[in-house]
Amino acid sequence: MFNPEFLTTDSEAISGNSLIEYLQDQSPDVLQRVARSASGDIQDIIRHNVQGLLGILPGEQFEVKIQTSRDNLAGLLASAMMTGYFLRQMEQRMELETTLFGEGGLDADPGELKL
């Protein structure tokens, strides 16, 4: 899951970053709770996406080693994070539509609106 230790890094790249400062002010419990909010479905999609980007071969048949630069790895992680954020927003939208309109979403005839 989430490792709050990365927030204590003394790096020039994150100095003056207001988001890092905000995260540093949060308790580890809050950070863990937010990190756990990603459903298993979201985690599976992100895992599949990252494996596709890396070109993963089956681990039981191949010993796979990946080498990359720090910048490329940072880009991959940023992409995975943005994908997770997007997927969580879409999951919340789907849950809201299901609650308001039933399984068919907006395309279905809502009939009687149940709140």
Indicate the topology.
Blueprint: H1 18-25, H2 28-36, H3 40-54, H4 70-101
Helix pairs in contact: 3-4
What does this structure look like?
It contains 4 helices and no strands. The longest helix is centred in the last third of the chain and has 32 residues. With 115 residues, it is an all-alpha fold. It is flat and about 55 Å long.
Major beta-sheet overview: none
Q: Please report the total strand number as a whole number.
A: 0
N- and C-termini, Cα separation: 35 Å
What is the ordering of alpha helices and beta strands? HHHH
Helix/strand-derived category reads mainly alpha
Percent of residues in helices = 55-70%
Regions with pLDDT < 50 over 5+ consecutive residues?
none
- Tell me, briefly, the overall form: flat
- Helix count equals 4
Radius of gyration: 19 Å
Q: What portion of residues belong to β-strands?
A: under 5%
Instruction: Provide mean pLDDT, rounded.
Output: 77
How would you summarize this macromolecular structure in one to three sentences?
This protein is an all-alpha fold. The protein is built from 4 helices and no strands.
For the structure shown, list the relevant keywords.
single chain; 115 residues; mainly alpha; 56% helix
